[in-house]
Every structure is written in C-alpha cells, then in structure tokens.
Amino acid sequence: MVSVIERAEVLITSPGRNFVTLRITTSDGVTGLGDATLNGRELAVASYLEDHLVPLLIGRDPARIEDMWQYLYRGAYWRRGPVTMTAISAVDTALWDIKGKVAGLPVYQLLGGRSREGVLVYTHASGADTAALLDDVARAQELGYQAIRAQAAVPGIAGTYGVKKDGKYEPANSSLPEEQPWSTEAYLRFAPTYLRAVRERFGFDFHLLHDVHHRLTPQEAARFGKEVEDVQLFWMEDPTPVENQEAFRLIRRHTTTPVAVGEALTSIWDVQHLITEQLIDYVRTTVVHAGGITHLRRIFDLAALYQVRSGSHGASDLSPVCQAAAIHLDTAIPNFGIQEHMGYPDQVAEVFRTGVTYADGHLHVSDEPGLGVEYDDEAAAAFPYNPKYLPVARRLDGSVHDW
Ligand code: CS2
Ligand code: MG
How confident is the model at residue 158 (pLDDT cuts 50, 70, 90)? Predict the structure, then answer.
C-alpha cells in the first residue's frame, strides 16, 4: 500500500516569541515538520496553509517533493511573495523530513552528504555604546565564536536596530508597531567608529560582520562601504532596500567591502540578477522564506556558478525547524559561506527538541533520520499565540523610513 499524506496540522505557539509550524503525517504514521513563521504576519501564513494548502495535500504521495513544489508554486497562479513562499517552504521542508525518516537517513545525506564537518556560524554582539559592545564581543569570543556581528546604539537615537536590552533582543516586541526614531547622518558618523574600535581592541583574527538593515540610499551605502574598508568586514548586510537592484551596481563601483543580501527575498528570481551580475558576495535567502530546501538549494546552485556563497539568515524568528533544515543544507552544499546563529529564548527548547549542537564557533546537525527535530504539543499548548509587531522607523522629521 503506497503511503499517502493523511493529516496536515498548522501548529501555533509562543515560547518567548511566536512560531508557526506545519506537521504532515503519512498513512504509515511518519511525521514531518516545516517552519512557517513570518515575523509579525504569522496568521497570514497559517491561514494560507490551513485554508488553501492543507486541503490539497491530503491523499497525495509525500515522496514526490519536486512535483509537490511545482504543483503548489505554479498552481497558485499568484506567485512569489513572503506569504505564499513561506507556506510552500513549510510543506517542502516537512516532506524532506519525512523522506529522511523513511530512508532512515539524515537529510544532509539525501542532499549529497557531508562537504564539511561543521557549519561556521556568526553570533550577535551589541551594546548601548561602544564600551558595552566591546564587552559583548569579548563574551562572544569566550564562547568560541570565530565570527561576530557588531551593532551599537547610535547616540541620541533610541531603539537603534539590533541592540540587546538586558541581554535579549527581540524586535517584534509590542502589540502595535513601536515607532523608532532614525537618523542616517548620526549613524554614518558613529557606526564606522565602533567597528574600528572592535578591530583596535580584538584585532583581525576573526570575522567581523555588520547589518546596515536596509537603512541607506545607494550613495550612502557606497560611501559607508568605502569608509569601513580598513575594518575588513566579512560583509555589510542589506546596505540599501533590495527592491531597487540597480543600487548594487553603484555600491560595487565604489567599494570592495563584501555585500550580503537576501533575507527579505523569497525566490531565485528575486536574487537572479544580484548573483549573475556579481553584485553580492553572500546570498542570505532561507529555508523558511525562500521555498524550502528544494528551492533554496537551487538558489545556492546558481550562486555557486558565480562564486557567491551562502550566508543564510538565522534570527530568532526563524524556528529551530528552519535552523535544523538550514544546517543540513549548509553541511552539504559546495559554496557554503557562513550561517547566522542568533540563539533562542530559553522556553523554545521546551517545545522544539533539536539534535543541532554548538561547539567552537560551529553548529553540527544530528545523524538522526530526517531533520532531527521533535515538537512537544503539550509544552506548546502552554504558550498561546501572542500578536506582536516589528517596529517602524521614522526620520527625525517624522517621515517613515526603512526599518
Ligand atoms: C536581521 C533580523 O538577523 C538579521 O539579520 O535582519 O533580525 C531581522 O530584523 C528579523 O529577522 C526580522 O523579523
Ligand atoms: Mg539582517
């Protein structure tokens, strides 16, 4: 009797932050998990799955992953975009989890096996000022991280992106969007000074990363990249909003600081020109938002032709299911660059039990069949959904800016 998809459940929980997970169960009782979390818009994806995709899955062959991808993508008629692609990602990832369990193999083995023993990761260091940032970089080095992202609060600008409060950073933290003031002028004066201070204190024998977080115009981004060339950043991330891809030609003309882009992009067509015109050095698309393992591998294969490496987004709003799937892919692909590792609130481990382990600046997947993640329904029930919004940035004149 051929196994078919018998059940598909959309699971919502909030252990410290909101997560949406799809669980597919086959007629043989094999289950697969897929992350479907879209920060600040979680219920849109939950409904897309519950109301539109789940009815299509029941009775289908879980082994036909590629056919399912094409069926859901082309069959949607309305293609791409974060909600559609996150829903398709969840189905795809769950089917790879099932295929690994049926084969009795960890997913990285299905993707061609190990290309490396461990996956180099970067962590977040931040501070309310330069001194606090330097302390946090020292903390990260003590934990063995060989790659560290540095962010510090811009003086006089409350709520600067990426700065922890009481050791924690969760941007989606209010029941209505927090409106955060922003000044590009103040940022451009200050950011190069704290990045330089990190190098002066800790030297160059580790990777230093920085997330501009979409805040600059193309010219400002070119100027910033040029100004910090002496800092030898591993990358400057999302220097300018990605809709205007012409902008990256201008940035390239003025600076050799490596550029990483892609966390807000959801398909190969969104990164195609950035890759084929060598406008970026790292592509940050993810399993959860860019079409699952099937489509993300396609993106990385295209990138490999142009010596563009992977640098997948891995913030705490991408669940441990996404993280595990990302590490399986990172373990197998030839053009792996680096993986973000922001970490999770403590309660998350009560709901998601994952075989991913950390050691000496690297993450390691487990050799359990499938993705190696379990979901505890009982624990999840203790953390009901808690609507939260990402902030909105406003310039000092009151106008809206890119957050
Ligand atoms: C950030 C994210 O980690 C990053 O690189 O860009 O923290 C991003 O702000 C959030 O994932 C948005 O939900
Ligand atoms: Mg980012």
Answer: confident
